Amino acid sequence: MSGPRFRDLFAWEWRQVGRSPLLWTVLLIVSASFAWGALNTAALHSAQAAALERARQVDTAFHANAAARARAYRAPVTSSGGPVAYWQDPTDVAGYSEYFVRMSALKPHLPSSPLAAGVSDLAPSRLEIRLNTPFGFTDTYDFENPRGLALGRFDLAFAVVFLLPIGLLLLFALFVTFERDRDMLRLVAAQAVGPRAWTGARLAAILAWSVPATVLAMIAALGIAGVPLGTAAGSLAVAALLTVVYMLFWSGVALTILARQPGAGAALGSFAAIWAALTIGLPLAGSALVGMIDPAPSAVGYVDAQRRIGDEINAERDKILAAAVTRRPDLRPYADRATSLDYATRLSFLVPETERRLAPLRSAFEDHRLRQEGVARIAGFAIPTLGIEAAFATLAGTDPARQRTFEAQARQYQLRLRGIVHPLVQREITQPPSSPARTTRGRLNLAEPLTLPKFALADRPAAERIGGVLPFLLWLGLLALLAITIGLVRTREWKVVE
Amino acid sequence: MPALRLDSVSIAFNGDRAVADLSLTLAPGEVYALLGPNGAGKTTTLNMILGFLKPDLGSIHVGGIDAVAEPLAARARIAYLPESVMLHPGLTATENLSYFALLAGRRIDAATARRLLADAGLQDDAHDRRAHGFSKGMRQKVGVAIALAKEARLLLLDEPTSGLDASAANDLSQVIRSASDRRIAVLMATHDLFRVKDVAHRLGILHAGRLVEERDAASIGPVELERLYLERLAA
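Output (structure tokens, whole complex):
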């Protein structure tokens, strides 16, 4: 006489587990949390998209106003309409450069964004680009996006990373310990089945219901949240695969504990401890450790340095301007005019000097951020809960790397604008106003506001983003395999004698 | 080939001897009663035969299979009835039987399940009822059916009549006799001296892990058996 075939055991367990109200209750709660999470993030991103649209409209209105002013200021000076000041005059190239070049760099969300709210949702998705803002933009005072997450986040990734394991572990604990807690295990063990096949069949049956249900719930949640499933198919497929592998990882962890054949109380206690360690304890401890070993440079110190350097530059202003003008062969003959330049023209020389002096501090911030991101990448591999959150954010396009790309491109955009506008401003050093008395209201050394290029974020292709996630997916798969193997090896003997 | 053979089996827990130098052989169809007070080592002996405990010394063979080296293969040849049978409360008697038969590597149809339950003495109207409200006697009868379904050549009974009424205990005796007639060896650990006299061919008295007396059941009357039992325990 031989023991049961695994296939028969699995088929029996699959039917029995499928009849359990517990299974469907847990899956219903998990599905509801998925839908709620996806809808939350979709609402957050929709609000951000609306803010971007408003910014576009404000930009359009601003530039239309500048164009209208430029036309109006071609009019001759009259008693009711005198010459306008340069900071109000879009036909004065210097005034235009400082007061009318105001463009928005916008970071639109990807179609798959309801997958996860990420770190970048705390950073601005709209950057105002002006020519003379040091390093491209000022993001310090942006409050809109942080306010959107003021109550914390409950997104699909949170539901997958934190809630799904709770549901799964609850199912494992209550289903697999049922016989132990009802004093049936001896009778089960006395039959011709080993603990590995018996536990394995039940776990497999739970997974056989849970995995498809979870994937379907995920797709349904994203569909409800308005994600165009066809457009984002690649990212969503990888997110679903990550979720399945993550479930297998927790199954391995569960099997390792259940190999000892504990009662429900002991199993749930162990699961709770492991869950808390992986989702809360280790990330918190790691974060505290990194904070101690590699503290962030002082933001207050940076502001202080900005002020100090600003004061230095003001004190050395004439010297800096003379040097800058003298360095330029085309301007060198007009070096005597360096000290009488208007404010906007002065800035075109002083701001690059400010940036040069602040560069070491700025680099310290950048380097620290890069180190933190490197540590986060490694931590993602060491702590799977962190890794899968990061992977979801990458697929959603809410990861810090995309934000950094956006900010770098915004800075490049500013430099590009400077490259267009500053030469026109500085050319005026060689052509000072012939007479202080003007016949037109505007100065008209810039006949029309310039048609400046608009910012367009050059995103990584979806395939590249997916490719970035694959190493973690493979690693998580290996961890899952390892955990399941350890669990199976440990499930050798029945433990029915106290 | 003997249905069960124990050779000089010993086991200790934390240095305390639980079973010492126990040797026992059961021929096919033989019914052997292992008597002894609580803590004498009866259940420990059954646990070792079932492979739930490994003996420190000695060997155990079930139908020629080394139960220590191959516990799963040995268990496939053993039917076991615990002192208190617990069933899946959400399943009917027939579903419980089908489940445990499946675990034993057997697939039985509904008609066979009903026949086995009837053979075990469970009334017909209980076959399709959920086990949730079953009395101990009813659960025990389903347990007997589970043991019968396995068609094993060795039946282990652990205090099988404990808590049963006279009628249920008598039904169980019938089952044991019937099993013996079909050349199934039966080893039962029990306190029930009356039942021992009723069904056993041989009996052994375990005391502090040692087999201190072994007799043919036919050679001793009930009163003498009780006297012998008490004497041996007092020694």
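Residues 83 and 162 of chain B are 7 Å apart (CA to CA).
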